[in-house]
Amino acid sequence: MKNPIIAAVAFDDISPFHLSVPCLVFGADRTRLGLPRFDFRVCAMEEGPIDTDAGLSIVVPHGLSALDEADIVIIPSWKDLDAPLAAPFKEALQGAHRRGALIVGLCLGTFAIAGAGLLAGRKATTHWAYTDQLQALHPDIAIDADVLYVDDGDIITSAGVAAGLDCCLHIVRARYGAEAALRLARHVVLSPHRQGGQAQFIERPLAPTPNADRFAKALDDVRATLGEAHSLDGVSDAAGLT
């Protein structure tokens, strides 16, 4: 039985952290944790050096031909979200999907999958700050902005940044079992199954509360007069507490 081939797609100005997510989960030898030895390939439009957004360059060993054999194609992020996909990449991604490869979009990688026309009429997610933009560009996608990842069968998409780790652990759990995923999570010091979704990180305006202001002022007054005696009842009254 051949080793599973996993292709991670890199591009100029990619974040090294985003690229490191699939590398961490699938790029190292995890056989002692109960996982197969993955044939992990980082690819780009063309093989060779690319720049990252962190001021360093990396040499990508594979071109888009890596997608021709891949069992799993992972797009760790994306840029130029409004621009159409380059035709060679679009065709390679569509071809991998037709062939039966699992297509995974981490964070803004969802935009690339949508740009290839693979998410029409399907469920997906992306970074919470970009869900409105994704919906405007692709109104035929059912976007769930609250979850860490969406498993829609042969396409999986994740929420922003660190949620890519949750998504990759989910792939391990779904394909190789909960025990293997648990061992891997322990090894890389991650929660094996994070509770909650990205909704908890969405910026929402909070109405000012008078009691909160009174509480803060009461504490400031105590700090400013530490040499004086303060009764619990007096501070409680000043803070609006009972």
Summarize the structure.
This protein is α/β, with parallel strands linked by helices. 36% of the residues lie in helices and 15% in strands.
Task: Describe the protein.
- There is one protein chain.
- The chain has two domains: 5-194, Rossmann fold (3-Layer(aba) Sandwich), CATH 3.40.50.880; 210-239.
- It is built from eight helices and ten strands.
- It has helices at 16-27, 87-99, 109-115, 131-137, 163-176, 178-187, 210-224, 232-239, and strands spanning 5-9, 39-43, 48-51, 57-60, 72-75, 102-105, 123-124, 142-143, 149-151, 155-158.
- Helix 1 packs parallel to helix 5 (163-176) and helix 7 (210-224) packs across helix 8.
- The longest helix has 15 residues, at 210-224.
- The termini are far apart.
- The model has no long low-confidence stretch (mean pLDDT 91).
Key features?
2 domains; alpha/beta; 10 strands; Rossmann fold; 242 residues; 8 helices
CATH homology group of the largest domain: Class I glutamine amidotransferase (GATase) domain
- Do you know the CATH architecture of the largest domain? 3-Layer(aba) Sandwich
Order of helices and strands: EHEEEEHEHEHEEEHHHH
| Amount of beta strand | 15-25%
- Low-confidence segments: none
CATH topology of the largest domain: Rossmann fold
* Fraction of residues in H or I helices: 25-40%
Q: In DSSP terms, counting alpha (H) and pi (I) runs of 4 or more, how many helices?
A: 8
Molecular shape: elongated
| Tally of separate domains | 2
| Rg calculated over all Cα atoms | 23 Å
Overall strand count: 10
Arithmetic mean pLDDT: 91
**Sheet with the most strands?**
6 strands, mixed
